[in-house]
Structures are given as C-alpha cells and as structure tokens.
Design a protein that fits this description.
Length: 677
C-alpha cells in the first residue's frame, strides 16, 4: 500500500514537471526530487550570465591574473634586500606555525566546503576539518630526520630557515587576496581558492592554515615532485625515459631502485606533457605503450597509471645495447612529431644504465649525430640528454654516458648503490627552470583535475614559477599555486562533470601550447647543474672538461640564492602544542561549535546498515516509478480515446536543474593519484 502511495505521488510530480523544495535547519535549500543541496547564492543568480563558456573563460582569466600577481609578489618578497633585511629576520622569530605540530591560533570549523574525509562531510552541524583563514602553515623537508621539531629548531638548516622566514610575509598577501576575491567566488557557491608556495629547497607554505597528517613526525610531502610544481617550472615538454634492464641490474636491488626513480619522474609530469618509457637489454621495447608502439602519449593520470603498472613488471636479463634504446627513443620522437602527438615544445631523454655498452661505440655516436642533425635541418632544438650511471662500479663505466652529456649539452650524474637515484633523476626539471628564467615571459601552468587530499571533491591548480631577479641570470627559487574548485567550473559552464572536464581539458591543452618558451641556459649554469646535481653536494667529476664556462670547476657554486649575512632566528615556531596529537585530534571538529583541540574528536559514522537497506529499497522503488507512470498514463490515454474525449495536458514551468552537492573541501595541491615521495 505504501509503495502504491509513493508511486502515485511520484507520477503527480513527474507530470507536473515540478521540483518542490524544503529548507533545512541550517538554511540549505534541499530538493525533494534528489536530495541535493541548492545553495541560495546560486539560486538567486542570473543563470544566463553565469552558465556559459564566457563565464568559464572569465574564470580562467581571473585565475591566471591572480596566479601571476601572486608570483610577482613572491619575487618582490624574495629579493635579497627584502628577505635578508633585519626587519624580516626579526619578525620571523617564533611566528610560524608548523603544519605537523603547531596549534592554529584562529581555528574555525567552517563546514562542508572544508570537509575532511577522515572526519565527515561537515553538513548540518556534522564534522569537518579545522582551518585557519588568518594563519598560514608551513612544512619543510627534514633532511636530518629529527622529528621532535622542538623549540630549539634542531634539524633545520639555514637554507630551510631562509625559506621559512622569507615566505612568512606572504601570509598577509594571501589573506588579503582571498578576502578580496570572496565576492567573485560567492557567485559560484564556492570558497575562495587556497594559495601556497613551494620553494626549491622543499619549504611549503599555505593558506588557509591546516594540520597535516604526519605519522611518527615524518612529513613526506615534497612540493618539488608534484605536477603543479614541475609543470610551472619546466613548461610543456616531451620526456622519454630509457631504462637499462640488462642482467647486471639484478644485483643489489638495483632494479627496484630504478623502478622507483622512473616512477618519481613520471609522477612529476603534467597534463601538458607527453612521455614514453623504453627498456633495453639485447633489444629495445616500449613499456606500457597503450597500443601506440612508436608514439608518445599524453601524461594524463590514466596513461601514467598504466605505465607505472607496466614498470612494476620489468625483469632484468640480457646485454647492454645502448644503441637500441636511443634508436627507439629518437624514432618515438620523430613519429610523434609527424602526427602532432606531442607537446610541440622541449624534448628530453633520461637515460639510465649500470654497465658498459656491449654494442659498437662509433656506430652509437654516429646514430646520435645523425638524429640531432635532422633536428637542426628542420629548425628545431634536439632533445636534452640527461644520463645517469648507477651502481658501485658506475664511475668506472661512465665514459660513454658522461660523453653523451658533455658532447651534446646535457647533464651526467653518477649515483652509487645506496645513493638517492630517485632524487637525482627527479631534478631534471631544474635545467628547464633555469633556462626559462631568462625568457622574461610570464606563463601559467594548469594541472589535470585531481581529487583533493582531504578525500572529498575535485579541483585543479594554476601555478607559476618564481625567480630571484636580484641577480643575473635570474635564479629559480620556487612555484606559487592557486587552486580552483571543479564545482565552480561546472556551475560556470552549466554542464555536468564529464562535459565540463572535456571542455577544461581542451582549454588547458590550448593554454599549454601557448606557453612554450625558449630555453636559454648559460654554460656556467649548466656546469653548476652538472657539479651539484640535485643538491648542494659537489661532484667535480660530473663537470665537463670541454665546457666553455670561464669559471673554474672548483669555483662553481650551487644555483641557489645567497643566504643572509645576518644570523637566522634560533626558534621559528609560534607554538608546538600539537606534538603528540593524532591527525584526527588536530583536524576534526564539530561544525559551528568553538574549536577545542584534543577534546572529543568529532567523527561522523561512515555507514549504517539501516541506511544501506533504506537506500536499497528506495532504489527499487525509484526504478519502478518510470514503468508505473508510463503504464498509468497509457491506461488513462486509452480510456480517454475510447470515450472520444480530446486529451488535455496541463502545462507547467520546467523546474531549473538541481545541482548536486559535491561537498567540496579546500583545494589541496596534493593529488591522491601521485604517490608521496
């Protein structure tokens, strides 16, 4: 009987084309039809003004201008005179809030737009994450692995202190920028974009402030290996990774270390990039080619995931035929260029081996010369060569890999067993970052939409490189990022998620092609990159003897801004009250209530049996509604025809489409599809 009543009422609703609503206690307007929230800010808007490509275009423009303005502000703050002033250093003492261990001074529990999956959805007084819109949080790469973060600031080098202190003044700028943009983003029923900066030394500062998950005090997030960071610092590019899978790679766990390094490189690639992986031993073959044997593929999350799975299945065996690996790499570049399946921008080969070549050296270099001449004849720059000799005997077998780098303007590195191969290979982007600094052209990079680290909702990041322009040539110092909610783009375009995603992908593809700039790297910069590789540790043997750099190898310094002459503060942290607290204790709170740390942790139940049963029955009923309504209508129509009565169909205005509540959190730049380094 109850089912019949429900079905009858549903038919009335269908034929009336109505979607009545009710208002919840929290003020959200809910649709009886699908239970989704219709936000008042969106309901009262002029839909014809917002739901269009023009609205989305304006959103892109606003994001790009905002990102470039943020980058310009950071360049001003990071100028030597500003960051090393006595005022900046004095103001840094005891002022920063650590993302793992500091309690936020102006913490709030804002609700659904800042929900955290570990807590709940933050709707109608539920549980959401704790955020501070006045205070930024900062984290850094703790190279000394001292996780106490005590007030003595042990484990923080002067280089990292420089990054923490020099970025603290950006907190006020980010706060003002978010406040001033609130009116604009209110039109799309989303919170203003979050803002952050990642330095070349791994320091990461963000607003609004948020507590990170730091098990055992170990914070593993490194901004420098994220697509938003590398995409902005290197621009669109084609990358081919050439991996030695010969029998000698079976020693000392080298195969697993190589796989991890290759994965790290792939993890840095952005949607604007194209890539391929080649393995070689006796012969060469493509890894995870997705049916495209001689073509690059776009570095989408789906394509990267397939190749990563294939890398896991690589096995060592056979000899070390360098020529076969390079020949397939050049062939892949050429075939991809012919069909325009490429970024159309810069190209690079990352070549890794642990042994000596078993093929003919003269024929090998003849091949490279011939392929490079083909690029010159067509007016294009040939691929940059990054070569890596890996293993305890790498240095003694490095003659050919080093010669490749030195003869063709590339970079060679030697990594012994136990060394950080992943970090060394992952630093390839620094070549492009330094080369782009002299172009004088501003550009913004966009990431493929990704799921927020909080576990609820999707978004994308607009990012731009930042340089220290107090020196010549400019020095790359980091990347700014500004997030945008995918829900806002859906509202602007007036389309569902899939249609909006397709349009967005097309748009960022167009923007990425337009941001291909000339790489102009000076010879002494190149020599410094060779000598210092991924860090500050010198390796004079990696520098090239045929270099035209006027500076001696011994006088070369890392490409980093100078440290301040004055002493950096001893203690940087405002407080360390969250040391020992669990992630939930630091993060979860009851919406609308005053935040009390380490008290009753607010966590919504993830599931209930009754709810599952209710949803199942509801699903069956909803599935029956269309059939029931059609049959009832046909019976009624047949009866009216038999009585020769003209059909009368009442008209009613069609209800506007109801938007589904995406429960969007703050847009964190940590993609769930890229493994932590």
């Amino acid at each position: 009987m109850m089912v019949t009543i429900i079905l009858s009422y549903s038919c009335i609703m269908v034929f009336a084309n109505a979607a009545p609503t009710t208002t919840s206690s929290s003020g959200d307007t809910r649709s009886v039809q699908d239970g989704s929230i219709i936000y008042p800010a969106f309901t009262n808007l002029n839909r014809s003004r917002l739901t269009s490509q023009a609205a989305l275009e304006s959103m892109f423009t606003k994001m790009q201008l905002g990102t470039l303005a943020f980058a310009a502000k950071m360049e001003n703050l990071l100028h030597f005179d500003k960051r090393c002033s006595s005022e900046t250093l004095a103001a840094c003492a005891g002022r920063s809030h650590h993302g793992c261990n500091s309690e936020l001074p102006a913490a709030t529990c804002p609700g659904y737009q800042y929900a955290v999956a570990s807590c709940g959805k933050g709707v109608e007084g539920g549980c959401s994450g704790i955020f501070d819109f006045d205070t930024s949080t900062v984290v850094y790469q703790n190279k000394e692995k001292d996780f106490s973060f005590s007030s003595t600031s042990r484990g923080i080098s002067d280089r990292e202190k420089d990054g923490i202190c020099s970025t603290l003044p950006a907190e006020e700028y980010m706060r003002q920028a978010m406040e001033e943009s609130k009116t604009y983003w209110d039109m799309f029923s989303v919170a203003p974009p979050g803002m952050y900066f990642g330095s070349n030394d791994g320091v990461f500062r963000m607003l609004p402030g948020y507590s990170f998950d730091c098990p055992y005090g170990d914070f593993t997030f490194d901004p420098r290996v994220r697509p938003w960071y590398v995409g902005a610092s290197s621009g669109p590019k084609d990358i081919i990774i050439v991996l030695d899978t010969s029998g000698s790679m079976n020693s000392l766990g080298r195969m697993d270390i190589m796989k991890a390094a290759a994965k790290r490189v792939i993890g840095t690639l952005n949607f604007a990039d194209y890539f391929a992986v080649v393995e070689f031993n006796d012969y060469a073959s493509r890894v995870g080619n997705n049916g495209l044997r001689d073509l690059l593929q776009r570095a989408s999350d789906v394509n990267k995931a397939k190749v990563l799975d294939s890398i896991d299945n690589l096995l060592p065996g056979g000899s070390t035929n360098f020529r076969s690996g390079f020949e397939l790499a050049f062939q892949t570049f050429q075939q991809s260029d012919n069909v325009e399946q490429s970024s159309g921008c810069h190209q690079a080969i990352l070549f890794l081996t642990d042994g000596e070549m078993t093929d003919n050296e003269t024929a090998f270099f003849d091949l490279i010369d011939r392929k490079r001449n083909g690029y010159s004849d067509s007016g294009r720059e040939p691929p940059v060569m990054f070569t890596y000799s890996f293993g305890s005997t790498a240095a003694s077998k490095a003659e050919v890999p080093k010669r490749i780098a030195c003869e063709y303007g590339g970079v060679w590195a030697s990594i012994e067993d136990g060394g950080n191969l992943a970090e060394s290979m992952g630093a390839y982007y620094k070549y492009f970052a330094q080369g782009l600094g002299s172009s004088g052209i501003d550009s913004v990079s966009w990431t493929e939409p990704y799921e927020y680290a909080t576990g609820l909702g999707m978004g994308t990041t607009a990012s731009a490189p930042v340089y220290d322009r107090s020196v010549t040539p400019p020095i790359f110092v980091g990347v700014v990022g500004v997030d945008i909610s995918f829900s806002a783009m859906e509202i602007a375009l007036g389309e569902n998620q899939e249609a909006t995603r397709d349009y967005f992908i097309k748009k960022i593809s167009e923007l990425s092609v337009a941001s291909c700039h000339t790489i102009d790297i000076e010879e002494c910069q190149l020599q410094s990159l060779r000598k210092f590789g991924s860090g500050d540790k010198a390796n004079n043997g990696a520098a090239c003897s045929n270099s035209t750099c006027s500076s001696s190898i011994n006088s070369l310094r890392p490409i980093n801004p100078d440290l301040c002459d004055e002493t950096y503060p001893f203690n940087l942290w405002a407080n360390e009250a969250s040391i020992g607290r669990s992630y939930e204790e630091k993060t979860c709170c009851t919406v609308g209530e005053e935040v009390v740390y380490n008290d009753d942790v607010c966590k919504e139940p993830k599931s209930k049996i009754g709810l599952i049963v209710g949803l199942s029955i509801g699903g069956i009923i909803m599935a029956l509604i269309p059939y029931y309504c059609v049959m009832k209508f046909m019976i009624k129509k047949r009866k009216m025809t038999a009585e020769t009565a003209p059909p009368v169909i009442a008209s009613a205005p069609i209800a506007p489409p109801q938007r589904k509540d995406t429960t969007l959190p703050y847009a964190f730049p940590i993609s769930s599809q890229v493994a932590d380094s």
